[in-house]
Amino acid sequence: MRPAELGELEAFRDLYAAAPPELGARSEEIDGALCLRLEPLSTVTMFNRALGLGIEQPATDEQLDAVLAFLRGVEAYVTVAPEAGPPDLGDRLAARGLAPERGWTKFSRPTAAPPEATTELRVERDETGEAFAEAATRGFGVPPFFADWLRPLAGREGWQCFAAFDGDAPAAAGALFVTGSVGWVGIGATVPEHRGKGGQSALLAARIDAAAAAGCELVVTETGEPLDGQANGSYRNILRAGFEPQYVRPNYLSAIAAS
Question: How confident is the model at residue 257 (pLDDT cuts 50, 70, 90)?
């Protein structure tokens, strides 16, 4: 499995394993595919997805039916990595009513020579997870229950949580998950009133440095592909941090109405 797929898959596998049972976050392994659903946010594809489909072995019709049965009732992305099989996997998903949607660009970079970033914000590793969870929840615009899920990650094996502060106020958040020699950076969000202050660039630099200290050789991440040739803010921040695009991974939407 490519490092850019491995890092994300292992991070989300552990993220869902850490979810408090009452939050309605569920995961299921179906013949090598990691299937995720979050009942309270049933239309947010970030948290309703199938990852790793067709990578360990070519996807079968039975597997596809089982994956879509698990995702029934939520709007979900079924991802198709470059190495996924069979070659007509995308066509098989389309034949089941899934529509091609905006793809995600997958990035990687070595941990050597972490970038420098300047910001008026103070960036720190958050050992308690309090500031990290508050900034991420407000930055993503998700319900308060989300903080109860993210806060404990700070003390969970494999995770490091970071926050940027404006004075004492949490302004931005970002996480690092380490699996073997690969570090995945994600859960990056900035509180609306603190955007444009360089917080995410500084958080990326801090996490790349932390990944190197943890023994990682490579750091990976992802964001939406540019639309109409225009890169978004997240895309630009990732490039400035020295990441190189590896490929665009297609997403197929399993909509509630089509389930």
Answer: very low
Domain map (residue ranges) of the chain = 3-105+248-258, 112-216
Task: Give the CATH architecture of domain 112-216.
Answer: 3-Layer(aba) Sandwich (3.40)
Q: Is the dihedral angle over the CA atoms 210, 215, 218, 221 positive or is it negative?
A: negative
User: CA 56 to CA 204: how far, in whole Å?
Assistant: 30
Distance separating alpha carbons of residues 15 and 11, to the nearest angstrom: 6
Query: Model confidence over 73-110: pLDDT tens digits?
Result: 999 999 999 999 999 999 999 999 999 999 999 999 99
Q: Extract the tokens encoding 133.
A: 């969870």
Name the 3-class secondary structure at 156. coil
Do the Cβ atoms of 139 and 172 come closer than 8 Å? Answer: yes
In degrees rounded to 5, what are phi and psi of residue 14?
-75, -35
- DSSP letters of 102-121? EEEEEEEEESSSPPP---SS
Across 17-27, average pLDDT? 95
- Report helix, strand or coil for 193: helix
What pTM was computed for the model?
0.95
